[in-house]
Design brief:
245 residues, disordered C terminus
Amino acid sequence: MKKNYNKTVIFNPQKMLLSDKSAFSVKEAYKTLRTNVMFSLPGKESKCIGVVSPDRGDGKSSVAINLAISFSQINKKVIIVDCDLRLPTIASKLQIEPKPGLSNFLSGNQESEQPLIRRSSEYGIDIMAAGDIPPDPTALLGSKQMDAFIELLKKYYDYIILDFPPATIVSDAASMSRIVDGYLIVIRHNESEFSKINETLRQMQFADAKILGFVYNGKEENKKYYRKGKYSKYYYNYYYYKKGE
């Protein structure tokens, strides 16, 4: 049975976070990604989006952050939560204190007086870091406390972006399909292995997770498509087929 999904192509990813200084192609790609997510999850209620990848190094955390920033640019209330409780990167990328964070909140172990949720006025988003590395991350993410926490966030935010660990390493992302409205799968050009992509899809489908689409990361920009800083031609593929086709 053939399965196909949305595909968003992002060219020339920048090490810096999405801003006015980002390349035109990058800004346009995230606008396209944002639009696809909005159309894939219609309605006015809060949306919880999971970002996952087959393996480490695919760029999922940067995509998650930049998607959050992109939503903030259209005045949406957004929070990004680092759900990679093994090797978190959100705090370092956004240059905030890594703890306390999600693990401390879920376990009730918060010794620091620092706020659990931090505000980035520069990017217009709220951030919850991973916190201390717990002995059993899967149990924390699968707890009733996590479910209640997401429901609480939905009262205050338009979009909740969850950055998960790679799907072929641990099953944390798929195990949270009960509370995630849809997933984006980030794959990297010339690096993501087909077998690992297939395994990621298998896990998601087994958990009956809704896959919003793929973000194709790491493809170099084709300079001939851009002249004098203007948008001459933008390479973009969009695929959607209903289940069962």
